[in-house]
Write a structure and sequence with these properties.
The protein is mostly helical. Among the domains are: 41 residues; 39 residues. 72% of the residues lie in helices and 3% in strands. β1 and β2 form a beta hairpin. α1 crosses α2.
């Protein structure tokens, strides 16, 4: 574009405009020039930060891949633990069933004995 300049319009909050005017006055430039300088600095900063983006992105990907591998190993370990616990649960259920078959029936509660007309002390009909 060369020396050709294009006008850009924007809306600012009053507090930001006041701060911009104060900054422009302290630098001895117009509001328009202060905005142009700010935009130039923003673009320059973005360009210099962008140079390391590929290297940084590669490092982040490597880090994330390591984290994913670690999490996958943790999931495998948890799956193995879950299978083990399921086996133990089945064993415990089997033991409980065996015990239940061997235990005599419990006597009825006092309320149940009264409903049936039994003497709750001797478990027989009155």
């Amino acid at each position: 574009m060369g020396d050709q300049k294009i006008r850009v319009y924007t809306f600012l909050e009053p507090a930001i405009l006041t701060r911009l005017d104060e900054l422009a006055a302290s630098k001895g430039v117009s509001r328009s020039e202060a905005v142009r300088i700010a935009i130039d600095e923003l673009i320059t900063r973005a360009g210099s930060e962008g140079e390391g983006d590929i290297t940084t992105a590669g490092q982040e990907i490597t880090t994330l891949e390591g984290e994913v591998q670690h999490l996958q190993e943790m999931i495998k370990a948890k799956d193995s633990e879950i299978l083990h616990l399921r086996g133990l649960t089945l064993d415990l259920r089997s033991l409980a069933d065996n015990l239940a078959c061997r235990m005599p029936a419990l006597p009825p509660s006092q309320e149940e004995a009264k409903r049936k007309g039994w003497s709750w002390r001797f478990w027989r009909r009155s």
